[in-house]
Amino acid sequence: MALFLEFLAQQWILALALLVVIIMLLLHESRKSGPSVSPQQAINLINREGGVFVDLRDAADFKQGHIVDAMHIPAAKLLARMAELEKYREKPIVLVCKMGQQSGAASKQLKAGGYSKVCKMTGGMMEWSNLQLPVVGKS
Q: 112 and 96: one domain?
């Protein structure tokens, strides 16, 4: 540990440059994949502008419980099934996954496909369930 602190003291410019590069990378990736919205913001957005929830989880998780009227398109099949979202090209599309981690990559794919209003729901279905918001299909 002492050697590491000595290195940082002697090479503070390199350490600072590395920190700046990491921060810039994180900011760039977060902007590129689209904004994140809370479950409450997502509900308001969908209701106000006539958008859709797209559930990216696998079939088993989707059957366990999903958001009312959510479209089920597994993340692995998003590119092949993107045409199903055509009527929502100019409307909000809120991407939902299990914990909010898969939706970033899917958001990038949709934005590259010309969909302009793509958002990720923070926390995914875990957050939705924690807030005790309604789900359908749960047995």
A: yes
pLDDT, average across residues 14-19 = 94
Q: Write down the H helix ranges in the chain.
A: 2-10, 12-32, 39-49, 59-64, 103-112, 124-130
Pairing of strands 71-72, 36-37: unpaired
68-127 pLDDT tens trace: 999 999 999 999 999 999 999 999 999 999 987 788 889 889 988 889 899 999 889 999
Answer yes or no: is 79 within a domain: yes
Residue from 70, 75, 94, 97 carrying the catalytic annotation: 97
Q: Are strands 52-55 and 93-96 parallel, antiparallel or unpaired?
A: parallel
Catalytic residue flag (residue 97): yes
Cα–Cα distance measured from residue 51 to residue 45, given in angstroms and rounded to the nearest whole number: 7
